[in-house]
Amino acid sequence: HLSVHPSIHTFSHLSAASPACTELETVMLDWLGKMLKLPEDFLAGTEGRGGGVIQGTASEATLIALLAARSKIVKLIQADHPDRSETDIISKLVAYSSDQAHSSVERAGLIGGVRMKKIPTDNKFSVRGDALQKVLEEDRAAGLIPFFFCATLGTTPSCAFDCVTELGPICNAEKIWMHIDAAYAGSAFICPEFRPLLNGIEFADSFNFNPHKWLLVNFDCSAMWVKKRSDIIGAFKMEPLYLKHDHQESGNHSHWQIPLGRRFRSLKIWFVFRMYGLKGLQAYIRKHVGLAKDFESLVRADQRFEISADVVLGLVCFKLKGSNELNETLLKRINNARKIHLVPCQLAGKFVLRFAVCARTTESRHVQEAWCHISHLASELLQELPHLTTVVGITC
Ligand code: PLP
């Protein structure tokens, strides 16, 4: 009845008015959490202190985590130093992420009004414990207050993984909130063979990935879990008179997000689970990873090209051996031809092409065709601009 009622907008934010919306979301996020083998702490269960919520995007999840962490550290410091003002504390706060983190992390710092520093990565584009430790020591010595670290599992440029088994214990010891952004890669953790990539999650305070990226759920659906939901609710709960009623409960997801109103997004997850089942979803992920590995083999077999980063999931970073200019021209020709579309990145100063397998209908023949197309355009280019490369190679 409510779903066709013209005043749905008035009611949908109150879980008392639409309890199925809140309840199904809690259950779906617990199911999904179990599929990822998240530690029990992150599940709501019946008595758990953690739980999941659907946000619109990974950007929102990072922002929510940062704001909750900000609120928590301010309260913690004021408990010991009641004379310190919130403004004074916030002016000293510093948040961290990988130098490979998505721009949304930097933006969260911008919106949250805190300093944001990028931690340098190693030769695998991964943040290691010693790199974070070094910056923390320098910042504490300078009188700053480290309070938030956003680790990335599956970075946007190259799908690299920060070393959360090293970073987590440091964050826990230093009372720094660790958020894990696995926007793309998170879907793969439902497969036992990829689950080790999530090791160290037990140290995190919050975790997020986008089922709308790679788990067949339509946009928007970004799944976020917290170990202690009181941290989030404590930061965002507002209860004006017009929202008070006789059935107040802590499960109201409006307290976990920026907007008040909510959509019934968990139904989308429910339908996908019912249609594919865990095995079907695992097969889907494995197929894409297999296709990416096939593409990697094709690239490796052509001496004119090189692979630019480890291929772990469905993304292949590759380039022609030669200058950035050469690769920029190749990308332009590929995208101008409008048969396939590639998005580039910079890795260690090199202009790199990214081949991402992510469409539901992608088959092996599409990957073969894409490679023939790329290889053909590369041959044309190298004939025209031989001075930009040193390698004589094979064609498709
Ligand atoms: N984090 C990572 C690692 C990403 O790759 C992306 C998008 O590509 C995002 C965050 C931003 O995702 P959203 O559009 O859900 O905010």
TrEMBL record:
CDD domains, per the entry: DOPA_deC_like
PANTHER family assigned: AROMATIC-L-AMINO-ACID DECARBOXYLASE, GROUP II PYRIDOXAL-5-PHOSPHATE DECARBOXYLASE
UniProt-listed InterPro entries: Aromatic_deC, PyrdxlP-dep_de-COase, PyrdxlP-dep_Trfase, PyrdxlP-dep_Trfase_major, PyrdxlP-dep_Trfase_small, Pyridoxal-P_BS
Keyword annotations of the record: Catecholamine biosynthesis, Decarboxylase, Lyase, Pyridoxal phosphate
Name of the featured protein: Aromatic-L-amino-acid decarboxylase
Organism in which the protein naturally occurs: Sinocyclocheilus anshuiensis
Biological pathway: Catecholamine biosynthesis; dopamine biosynthesis; dopamine from L-tyrosine: step 2/2
Annotated family: Belongs to the group II decarboxylase family.
Keyword Lyase: yes
Modified residues (N6-(pyridoxal phosphate)lysine): K213
Cellular component aspect of the GO annotation: cytoplasm
Keyword check for Lyase: yes
